[in-house]
From TrEMBL, chain A:
Keywords on record: Oxidoreductase
SUPFAM superfamilies: Thiamin diphosphate-binding fold (THDP-binding)
Thiamine pyrophosphate enzyme TPP-binding domain residues: 50-218
InterPro entries, A to Z: PorB-like, THDP-binding, TPP_enzyme_TPP-bd
GO molecular function (one): oxidoreductase activity
Protein name: Thiamine pyrophosphate TPP-binding domain-containing protein
Transmembrane parts of this sequence: none
Source organism, top-level taxon: Bacteria
UniProtKB/TrEMBL annotation, chain B:
Keyword entries, A-Z: Oxidoreductase, Pyruvate
Entry's Gene Ontology molecular function annotations: pyruvate synthase activity
Class in the EC hierarchy, top level: oxidoreductase
CDD domains listed in its UniProt record: TPP_PYR_PFOR_IOR-alpha_like
Classification via PANTHER family: PYRUVATE-FLAVODOXIN OXIDOREDUCTASE-RELATED
Keyword Membrane belongs to the record: no
Domain Pyruvate:ferredoxin oxidoreductase core: 262-366
Family of this protein: Belongs to the pyruvate:ferredoxin/flavodoxin oxidoreductase family.
EC number: 1.2.7.1
Protein name listed in UniProt: Pyruvate ferredoxin oxidoreductase, alpha subunit
Organism of this sequence: Mahella australiensis (strain DSM 15567 / CIP 107919 / 50-1 BON)
One Pfam family from the record: PFOR_II
Record has Transmembrane as a keyword: no
Record domain Pyruvate flavodoxin/ferredoxin oxidoreductase pyrimidine binding: where: 16-239
UniProtKB/TrEMBL annotation, chain C:
Cofactor section: [4Fe-4S] cluster
Protein's name in the database: Pyruvate ferredoxin/flavodoxin oxidoreductase, delta subunit
Gene Ontology molecular-function annotations: 4 iron, 4 sulfur cluster binding; metal ion binding; oxidoreductase activity, acting on the aldehyde or oxo group of donors, iron-sulfur protein as acceptor
Domain 4Fe-4S ferredoxin-type intervals: 42-71, 72-101
UniProt keyword annotations, A-Z: 4Fe-4S, Iron, Iron-sulfur, Metal-binding, Pyruvate, Repeat
InterPro entries for the chain: 4Fe4S_Fe-S-bd, 4Fe4S_Fe_S_CS, PorD_KorD
A Pfam entry, by short name: Fer4_21
Source species, domain of life: Bacteria
The species this protein was found in: Mahella australiensis (strain DSM 15567 / CIP 107919 / 50-1 BON)
Automatic annotation (TrEMBL), chain D:
Classification via NCBIfam families: PorC_KorC
Name this polypeptide is given: Pyruvate ferredoxin oxidoreductase, gamma subunit
PANTHER family with a match to the protein in the record: PYRUVATE SYNTHASE SUBUNIT PORC
EC number: 1.2.7.1
Length: 311, 393, 103, 192
């Protein structure tokens, strides 16, 4: 069915207000949109890795989740939900569950790229019918903005601080989306909530209703960690996409498809400038670091275009 | 009609699991428990069970998947040993605290380092305060029986806690011995249907589990959990009495062997208890009043009952197959001695660490312990409180 | 175990006997009963005349506090709106004012 | 009360000494005995010397330790005589059976001055002729049972036949060969 923005607004909300995420946090925006892609009649079991989203959305006795929800630890949302999915398969086979249930895991980049990576890889390989959604805010925000393997190069975090000798994080961001695609699972996509949310909604719908494991990597800005003015979140997401820092694409049964190609690819300064975590790059002596960042983004973009048959 | 069979401990436990027919089993191979999921996956492959078998990529994920499955209302089981149990550590506490009645076979093996695949109780003893109910077992028969009973204890409304059924790696797990098995129907009826109060799969009543507790509630949840494990003692007694009716085998919270008139006694868990019974018989033939108390339910610890059972003895040696590194005795010793304080004060209590990393212990090794106890009983003096059996000095 | 309480009965006065075991919360979406409106220092205010009902602001709210109305526009749930201002920025028609929230 | 009999097996990893001990346990279990069958486990792989044990009794067996003073010893691989002290702790009232074409007298020479019974059987020849492959454990089982006389011969063969039918349910063609190998070993074992 073609995407109808206004119709999606009529679907019931499955993630409520009253959670304790920061004002202007990107994660709940991602969660709301992903869950909106569920058919209203379908029940969902949601697993959540320890992280900002978890501690803020499930403070006893107040749960922001209208579906069934489970948190157990930091590194194992994928394993936890795979157990629930196995229970469903078994009980359904035995005729004890008459209705369809969907399985979705949410983790931040810490719980996904790093500590939860093994459990994620295992669950994907085993082929559970589930979606793993990484809301990627590019650092361990819950514990106070420490670097993760998703943190971009040069970002200033509390464990990769920009100092007089070392200009922030020294390593490039891990390309998890491609790593997940290499698992050979039926559906992998990189997305972001932007404009009329079509991209994220449609990818969520495909991920949820594709039989077998699916992975979504979704950019989720963090005003505290990235140090930008809270209200500009949506603009910042657009800049990430238009600079090709965060390209939108999907990998369907192994085939790469580009979801969006900016008409005018913007320079990375547009992305770096509004964010306090990159402030040190704008000192005159660090110009070459911005050039390096640009060269890296260009190469990655080029590689992606080739993979997508766009070049 | 009971079925006379000969099975290894692992075969017996896998057999029990087939009869229990859990909804989900998630497990990862580790010596010496590997055979349990291995045998069980064959039952799955042959369509003999309804179970969804999840061959996870680690023990941490095994316990995580068990948590997800049990939370989803599935009767869930697993098995592990040693490092596997250690890797599960974080999730053991979470399983217990989320009040999920998972039943696990823990085939006891030493912990690294140095790496060692043989038997001692370091693994399970390390998990003794994780909130799991722990039942230790001497033989394949006892392990089989306990596993079936564990389902009932775990899922009981007054308990709602996971249970760990422990037995010795290789000695019990890989040794083929006689066993009496129950018929499938009998086990099926005994364990009954699993009807959890809350389930993630209950569409009509969606729930959130694994919530974040602020200080206003965490303490209350722990108090509630403490009550649940306290309840497990009476529930186990009831379940064991019921089990005796279908099996003819009556179990207690612990087993007393020639203890009622004993002057000297040892307290011991798992397979070496059998060896020690032979020692007791040998000593009894020599007119020495030796006795034995075999640990069965270790968590919750039946402190009052054990203190009472030992109160008339002159000298007791508590045998630990784990070095607790407290420098004040092994884990069973600490609990037994603490239980006896104020209740059996006249009794001299010493500790022996034995059998670490598969160090074999025979009838005559145990006799040395009784000889030591006899000396203490005769003199009324404890020379050494902490002792090592069979170590090269 | 005692009967399950209502979410509003789960408070700091009740006994350990009366809370749900293991911290299970059988109150799906119960967070709605918890208000976060008092976190706000700035308040988004809809300028009805300028609002075209495009709804572009609605999905961007981290607090599910923009509610589409029957007349095709939106209204605010100020019990939960934390005043982040994302909706203000995203509105193509300048139909949302952002004012200091002094009550 | 029946006396408990303890048997120790010496073989090499991959040769089936462990399987033989389990087969023996099973066969005697089928005759109504209480049994134990357990190998000594280590990280060693195929080829390494391996020990396995049996206990057999008319009463429940409670002891759970290794066997240090066996009544009988079975040596599945003759070459072990050079490297392993196969008669260590072996009771003089018992005996030892070795897989070899040599005579008991020749073998006794390798066994220090062991005074008990010594038996030899050419399990290699028997298994190759009857099974077409080198599987020494079934002939060795036959030989040790002939020496111990733990159960009546016909009863033992019948019990083993049952085990084979169970074990080789998917390849019944090997059952007859195994039964022949077992019977031949029981006949051909030389004991002095």
């Amino acid at each position: 069915m073609p995407y109808n923005f206004k119709k999606t607004a009529q679907k019931p909300e499955r993630f409520t207000g009253g959670h304790r995420m920061c004002a202007g946090c990107g994660a709940p925006v991602v969660v709301r949109t992903v869950l909106r892609a569920l058919k209203p009649e379908d029940h969902a079991v949601i697993a959540n890795a320890t992280g900002c989203l978890e501690v803020s959305s499930s403070i006893y006795p107040y749960s922001a989740w209208k579906d069934s929800y489970i948190h157990s630890a930091f590194e194992n949302a994928a394993a936890t939900v795979s157990g629930a999915e196995a229970a469903y398969v078994s009980l359904k086979k035995q005729g004890k569950i008459p209705y369809d249930t969907k399985f979705i895991a949410f983790g931040g980049d810490g719980g996904t790229y790093d500590i939860g990576f093994q459990s994620l890889s295992g669950a994907m390989e085993r082929g559970h019918d589930m979606v793993y959604v990484c809301y990627d805010n590019e650092a361990y925000m819950n514990t106070g903005i420490q670097r993760s393997s998703s943190t971009p190069k040069f970002a200033d975090t509390t464990t990769s601080p920009a100092g007089s000798v070392i200009p922030g994080k020294l390593q490039y961001k891990k390309d998890l989306t491609k790593i997940m695609a290499a698992h050979g699972i039926p559906y992998v996509a990189q997305s972001a909530p932007m404009k009329n949310f079509r991209d994220l909604y449609e990818k969520s719908e495909k991920a949820i209703y594709t039989q077998g494991p699916a992975f979504l990597n979704v950019l989720a800005p963090c005003p505290r960690g990235w140090r930008y003015d809270t209200p500009i979140m949506m603009e910042l997401i657009e800049i990430a996409v238009d600079t090709c820092v965060w390209p939108l694409y999907e990998v369907v049964n192994g085939e790469y498809h580009l979801s969006y190609k900016p008409k005018n690819k913007r320079p990375v300064e547009d992305w770096l400038k509004p964010q306090g975590r990159f402030k040190h790059l704008f000192a005159p002596q660090n110009r070459h670091l911005i050039d390096e960042f640009q060269a890296y983004v260009d190469k990655e973009w080029d590689d992606l275009l080739k993979l997508c048959g766009e070049k | 009609m009971a079925i006379r069979e000969r099975l290894s401990g692992n075969e017996a436990v896998a057999f029990a699991m087939r009869q229990i027919d859990p909804d989900v089993v998630a497990a990862f191979p580790i010596t010496p428990s590997t055979e349990v999921p291995q045998y069980f996956s064959q039952f799955v492959a042959n369509g003999q069970v309804h179970t969804e078998f999840v061959a996870v990529e680690s023990e941490h994920s095994a316990m995580s998947a068990c948590i997800g499955a049990e939370a989803a209302g599935a009767r869930t089981m697993t098995a592990t040993s040693s490092q596997g149990l250690a890797l599960m550590w974080e999730m053991l506490y979470i399983a217990a605290s989320m009040r999920l009645p998972i039943v696990m076979t823990a085939v006891n093996r030493a912990l690294s380092a140095p790496i060692n695949i043989h038997n001692d109780h370091s693994d399970a003893m390390g998990a003794r305060d994780s909130g799991w109910i722990q039942i230790y077992n001497e033989t394949n028969q006892e392990a089989y029986d306990s596993l079936i009973m564990a389902i009932r204890v775990a899922e009981h409304a007054d308990v709602q806690l996971p249970v760990m059924v422990c037995y010795d790696g290789f000695i019990t797990s890989h040794s083929v011995e006689n066993i009496m098995l129950l018929e499938d129907e009998l086990v099926k009826n005994f364990v009954g249907e699993y009807k959890p109060k809350y389930s993630l799969l209950d569409k009509e009543h969606p729930v959130s589990m694994g919530m974040f507790d602020l200080p206003a509630f965490y303490f209350e949840h722990k108090r509630q959990q403490a009550e649940a494990i306290k309840n497990a003692k009476q529930v186990l007694i009831d379940v064991q009495n019921e089990f005796a009716k279908i099996s003819g085998r009556q179990y207690g919270l612990f087993e007393e062997y020639k203890l009622d008139d004993a002057d000297i006694a040892i307290v011991i868990a798992n397979s070496t208890a059998g060896t020690a019974k032979d020692t007791v018989d040998m000593l009894r033939e020599q007119g020495i009043k030796a006795g034995l108390l075999k640990i069965r339910l270790f968590r919750p610890f039946p402190a009052d009952e054990i203190a009472k059972a030992l109160s008339h003895v002159k000298a007791v040696a508590v045998m630990d197959k784990a070095e607790g590194f407290s420098a004040a005795g092994g884990p069973i010793f600490v609990d037994v001695r603490s239980a006896m304080y104020g209740k059996a004060d006249g009794v001299k209590v010493i500790n022996y660490i034995y059998g670490l990393g598969g160090r074999d212990v025979g009838v005559y090794d145990i006799k040395q312990v009784y000889d030591h106890l006899q000396k203490i009983a005769d003199s009324g003096q404890v020379d050494n409180l902490y002792n090592y059996l069979g170590i090269r000095e | 175990m005692n009967e399950v309480k209502k979410i509003e009965e789960i408070n700091e006065d009740i006994s350990w006997r009366d809370i749900t075991p293991g911290g299970v919360a059988p109150w799906a979406g119960g967070a709605e009963t918890f208000t976060t409106g008092d976190w706000r220092t700035m308040r988004p205010v809809l300028i009805e005349d300028k609002c075209t009902g495009c709804l572009l602001c609605w999905p961007t709210c981290p607090d599910t506090s923009i509610i589409p109305t029957d007349d095709g526009k939106i209204k605010y749930d100020y019990d939960h709106c934390k005043g982040c201002g994302v909706c203000v920025e995203v509105c193509p028609f300048d139909a949302i004012d952002f004012v200091e929230d002094i009550s | 009360m029946g006396k408990m009999i303890e048997i120790r097996w010496h073989g090499r990893g991959g040769q089936g000494a462990k399987t033989a001990s389990l087969l023996l346990a099973e066969a005697l279990f089928n005759t109504g005995k209480y049994i134990q069958g357990f190998p000594e486990y280590g990280p060693e792989r195929s080829g390494a010397p391996l020990t396995a044990y049996n206990r057999i009794s008319d009463e429940p067996i409670r002891v759970h330790s290794n066997i240090y003073e066996p009544d009988y010893v079975v040596v599945v691989d003759e070459t072990l005589l050079a490297s392993v002290d196969v008669t260590a702790g072996l009771k003089e009232t018992g005996g030892i059976v070795v897989n070899t074409p040599k005579s008991p007298e020749e073998i006794r020479h390798y066994l220090k001055d062991y005074k008990g019974k010594v038996g030899t059987v050419d399990a290699k020849k028997i298994s190759e002729e009857e099974l077409g492959r080198y599987f020494p454990n079934v002939p060795m089982l036959g030989a040790i049972m002939a020496m111990t006389g733990l159960v009546e011969k016909e009863q033992f063969i019948k019990s083993m036949e049952e085990s084979f039918h169970h074990k080789f349910a998917t390849k019944p063609e090997v059952i007859d060969g195994n039964v022949r190998a077992l019977k031949r070993a029981m006949e051909e074992v030389r004991i002095s």
